Amino acid sequence: MTRPNILWICTDQQRWDTIRALGATAAQTPHLDRLTEEGTAFTRAYCQSPICTPSRSSFLTGMYPAAHQVQRNGNAYFPDHLTLVPQIFRDAGYRTGLIGKLHLSAAQNRIETRPERDGYEEFYWSQHPGNDWPEGHDYADWLAERGQSAAAFDESHDLISHPVAAEHSQVAWAADRALSFIDRADGRPWMLTINVYDPHPPFDPPKSWYDRFDPADMPPPVFAESDLAHHHRLKGVDQQTQTPGDPMRLPDPDAPEAATHDSPPERYDVLAVRAAYYAMVAMVDDMVGQLLERLDTSGQRQDTLILFMSDHGEMLGDHGLLYKGCRFYEGLVHVPMILSQPGRVQQGVKATGLAELVDIPATLCDAAGLTVPAQNQGRSLWPVLTGQAPTDEIKPYVLCEYHDALAFPGSTGSRGSMYFDGRHKLVVYHDLETGELFDLAADPGELHDLWTDEGSAGLRAELVLKHFSAMMRVTGAGPERVANF
Q1: Rounded distance, CA 167 to CA 239, Å?
Q2: Which secondary structure element, helix H or strand E, spans residue 386, and what is its range?
Q3: How far apart are CA 226 and CA 231, in angstroms?
């Protein structure tokens, strides 16, 4: 078989409901809409952690966090015994490249330590647009070549601060580096991963993009007064932030104010936040359009499998919450995932079955005819993509975990996990010996927690057992077995 090129685009903290072709009427995403029309969109794809590093470790290894054990942001290093997807492709003769963040280990005020075998032949690293690193930051170097400075990105976290012009944004840098990579095709198949920071907070798109969105046109957040009492019951659970004091100033997600658990989203300008967020998604969409055009004009589109996804979502005001934490609401764990290759992947299909980011390594290997490592715990979605398996029943359940994943003032090192069978979502907060139970068929907004409902006691017990059994299946088996005893 002819091995396809792989263009793998991963955004940071993008919710599932941000693509117009998939129902987000406030979104401006013509190029992602095209990708959806020319491919297959998984409308119920879930991340394995609501936090960057454990999630990225899962979709780069094909392992659940309980197995790979890279469960926290800020780790000193990434373990060298785990095989990463790019290494598989490089070993198979692919030309490989990374543009943007890797975030498999700590990158705060330090250059991230690269795994010895991360698989990247070309490495253009930029954890985020800020000015944290005096050297080793490719985006800052690119800005300097243009007479600009990453120092424009301050830490004020003022809402819609417009730190730089669009042509000097990190997304523009990523597009420039990617177009160069594509133009330098040398006959080998290639894998390029683009990991931009948008639409991650702070919500600060360039003004030229923000001006395209009217906050009044934004969908309101999911919220009910009952959310306030609900958060109070779970006040011991880590969550980056909920309310700023100034409605036009957002708190720093790395050093949030103490959570009060008693404030509705009206305390801040949530529609302006949402407009900024959608503007950042639109800017990424424009980058996707540039890449599609270059693939078309260079004659590489037919030979290129494109994957678009995000590592996890963003609360964006839902239930009165911003950012992320040890929570498992749809806005945080339900993510976009679209794959497209003309002539190979089914076009215009919306796969409604449950899927997970942990399925990506097996899927990409299957598409390229490569052997999946023994460590893999995901399922190849290639039969679904090619019409050989149903699109409405893919996996019986999905899992998500949070194990002391974030460290910030006031955090307690929470541990929580989620089991979702497509209708009922069970969440267990292991430190508090409590949880949540939602029936998404009857309550898609997750506003009515059934955990303490007497009539749901039997269902809760059944799901707790299923959840425990499912988690025990993904804890990992350690080194390869080579003998019977």
Answers
A1: 34
A2: none
A3: 9
Strand blocks (E) in 361-445: 398-403, 415-420, 424-429, 434-439
pLDDT digits (tens, 9 = 90+) for 57-96: 999 999 999 999 999 999 999 999 999 999 999 999 999 9
Residue 356: its H or E element: strand 355-356
Residue with tokens 């019977």: 484
Report CA torsion sign: 370, 376, 377, 378: negative
Select the more confidently predicted residue: 134 or 333. Answer: 333
Amino acid at position 149, single letter: S
HSE-CB for 446 with a 13 A CA cutoff: 25
CB 139 within 8 A of CB 127: no
Residue 38 gets the label, from left (phi > 0), alpha (psi -120 to 50) or beta, of alpha
Q: How many whole angstroms separate alpha carbon 313 and alpha carbon 46?
A: 9
Residue linked to tokens 């267990």: 428
Give the confidence band of 161 by pLDDT, cuts at 50, 70, 90: low
Between strands 40-42 and 337-340, the pairing is: antiparallel
As a whole number of angstroms, the distance between CA 314 and CA 281 comes to 12
Residue 459 in tokens? 């269902």
The two three-digit tokens of residue 411, written as one number: 């955090």
Residue 45 per-residue DSSP state: E
pLDDT at residue 202 in the model = 87
Check if the beta carbon of residue 288 is closer than 8 Å to that of residue 35.
Answer: yes
Alpha carbon distance 384, 363 (integer Å): 10
Cross-strand partners of 401: 417
